[in-house]
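in:
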């Protein structure tokens, strides 16, 4: 049977005492503990916190606890890891969400209804308005920011194409109808037509205009349509 030297026993007793003292200190330093977590409908979670040694609890979010250094030091290392994890989740999650998107005929654009995660208020903005608000854009999810960018680009291209069409259409218009007058004896409409850039006005019947392909091609589409419609009516009246 081996005998443990007295000095070794004293050493072990000292180490055990230090261990128990460290445990007591750790327990004394831990003022709070997480007793329950609650998921929030808008995302993230809140905690029910108990004050150790007292029948006292309160609720707080991870972000609120993480922002208070003195309070954070009162939790165990395990609880601190939990709080830090959810606080980081809250910081990185989108602050705004698109609730609905609707096409507005009045503006010929998509209108987006957005809501902040911690508010019940909503706001309506176009894709262009959101794209120009860099702060708001950063507070959307990547998927919704992509949708806004795609919509804004599509609407811009549509406007540019419309403008190009109008310019092209304007350059093709060489004749304009100044006025129209019904001629009783002939039971026909007489049009006064003027060439673009000229002061000279000519009078022509619908049949004369319809037979002049150069003039027809030089009219605005709506004027060419009007002439064609009247020509059809007059043609049918002939055979009544």
């Amino acid at each position: 049977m081996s005998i443990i030297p007295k000095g070794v026993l004293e050493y072990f007793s000292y180490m055990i005492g230090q261990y128990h003292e460290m445990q007591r200190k750790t327990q004394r330093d831990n003022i709070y503990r997480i007793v329950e977590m609650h998921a929030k409908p808008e995302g993230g979670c809140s905690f029910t916190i108990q004050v150790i040694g007292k029948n006292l609890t309160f609720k707080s979010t991870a972000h609120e606890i993480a922002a208070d250094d003195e309070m954070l030091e009162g939790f165990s290392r395990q609880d601190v890891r939990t709080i830090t994890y959810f606080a980081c989740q809250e910081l990185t999650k989108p602050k705004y969400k698109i609730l609905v998107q609707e096409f507005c005929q009045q503006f010929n654009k998509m209108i987006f209804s957005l809501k902040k995660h911690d508010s019940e208020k909503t706001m309506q903005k176009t894709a262009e308005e959101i794209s120009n608000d860099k702060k708001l854009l950063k507070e959307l999810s990547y998927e919704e920011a992509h949708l806004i960018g795609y919509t804004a680009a599509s609407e811009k291209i549509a406007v540019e194409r419309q403008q190009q069409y109008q310019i092209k259409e304007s350059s093709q218009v060489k004749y304009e109808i100044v006025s129209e007058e019904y001629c009783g004896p002939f039971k026909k409409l007489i049009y006064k037509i003027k060439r673009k850039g000229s002061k000279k006005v000519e009078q022509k019947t619908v049949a004369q205009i319809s037979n002049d392909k150069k003039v027809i091609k030089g009219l605005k589409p709506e004027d060419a349509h009007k002439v064609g419609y009247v020509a059809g009516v007059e043609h049918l009246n002939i055979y009544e």
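note: The longest strand covers residues 96-104.
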